[in-house]
Amino acid sequence: MPYDGQGGDVTRRILHVDMDAFYASIEQRDNPGLRGRPVAVGRGSGRGVVAAASYEARVFGVRSALPSHMALERCPELVFVPPRFEVYRAVSAQIHAIFRQYTQLIQPLALDEAYLDVTERWEPYGSATAVAECIRRDIHDQTGLTASAGVSYNRFLAKLASGQRKPDGLFVIAPSQGEAFVADLPVEKFHGVGPATTRRMHGLGIYTGADLRSWTVPELRRHFGGSAQFYHDIARGLDHRPVEANRPRKSLGTETTFAHDVADWDRLSATLKAIVRKLAEGCGQKRIAGKTVTLKLRYAGFQTVTRARSAPFPVAEEAVLRQMALELLWSFFPLEKPVRLLGLTISSLVPCGEGALPVQMGLFESQA
């Protein structure tokens, strides 16, 4: 079995399939009047933000998470449509059914993208690239949508590859090309290197994969802690992470953005109770429970703060979650400033029945 000489197996065949402007493309598919026009999925007034943008809108700099008023400033002709998540989930289910025709080793990342390991399944098709082409064809034939795909010998490179020829493209990074491909790439393009890490790397004179490759693991560890080995490896085109089929969910959460900043307890607590109810329903539907509840507040000015509280056993009951959440909210009073967003997440998840017990009130452990 061939290796890359540094302990990395280059015989794996990994695909990253990413739908093109998924939400917006579905809206354009279902409403012919939107085709060819700049479209944003989201609320186009008040405190709305863009959930997704069509490629016609992206030309103007409209991107997901952009406040709606800024999106309209950049593109006055922008058409906002409300999200239809039940439709997006149904189309996602169609797409994953197509994936399962080619492999059972599927790791979803979101409704619109996933890793697929076709190492054991590519031979009948001639190559992993041919498998990717078949999947893209089936998606188009069955949903009317386009997908881009990356093909490589590990997850990191497959995801990089899928973004090279969007939309409706296919790109392959062969084992002989991986290290050279990464060498010329700006570190901000690396999946797994976010804006904060990019700034730290730039401050250290690390701008490209080649720059990153010149650093040893001990040197990287002094600046990046536990991520040092990962950064060391990806700079060499290596990624040992397997495609994790049926990967356990790590957290579940929901949030609300207010039309106007809110500072009074009654309004915030009422909103939080509604969020808790929705979160509890989600836990019930997915049959999961969790030990840690995290409250997120975003103040006017976009400063974001969080506080967490843990129970001794996994919980999912609405009453317990509500008291944990309200105690966390009260800990922020008096407020530093009015609140524009309120969110709640439950983590340290287990399937219901695995230690999920009722919890006596007042036994929660704070985590500032």
TrEMBL record:
E.C. code: 2.7.7.7
Subcellular location: Cytoplasm
Alphabetic keyword roster: Cytoplasm, DNA damage, DNA repair, DNA replication, DNA-binding, DNA-directed DNA polymerase, Magnesium, Metal-binding, Mutator protein, Nucleotidyltransferase, Transferase
Chain positions of site Substrate discrimination: 23
CDD domains, sorted: PolY_Pol_IV_kappa
Residue ranges of every copy of the UmuC domain listed in the record: 14-194
Cited InterPro entries: DNA/RNA_pol_sf (IPR043502), DNA_pol_Y-fam_lit_finger_sf (IPR036775), DNA_pol_Y-fam_little_finger (IPR017961), DNA_polymerase-Y (IPR050116), DNApol_IV (IPR022880), PolY_HhH_motif (IPR024728), Rev_trsase/Diguanyl_cyclase (IPR043128), UmuC (IPR001126)
Catalytic activity: DNA(n) + a 2'-deoxyribonucleoside 5'-triphosphate = DNA(n+1) + diphosphate
Active-site residues, as the UniProt record annotates them: 113
Entries under Gene3D superfamilies matching the protein: 3.30.70.270, 3.40.1170.60, 5' to 3' exonuclease, C-terminal subdomain, DNA polymerase, Y-family, little finger domain
Pfam family, one: IMS
Protein purpose: Poorly processive, error-prone DNA polymerase involved in untargeted mutagenesis. Copies undamaged DNA at stalled replication forks, which arise in vivo from mismatched or misaligned primer ends. These misaligned primers can be extended by PolIV. Exhibits no 3'-5' exonuclease (proofreading) activity. May be involved in translesional synthesis, in conjunction with the beta clamp from PolIII.
HAMAP family: DNApol_IV
Record text on subunit structure and interactions: Monomer.
Protein name, UniProt field: DNA polymerase IV
Originating gene: dinB
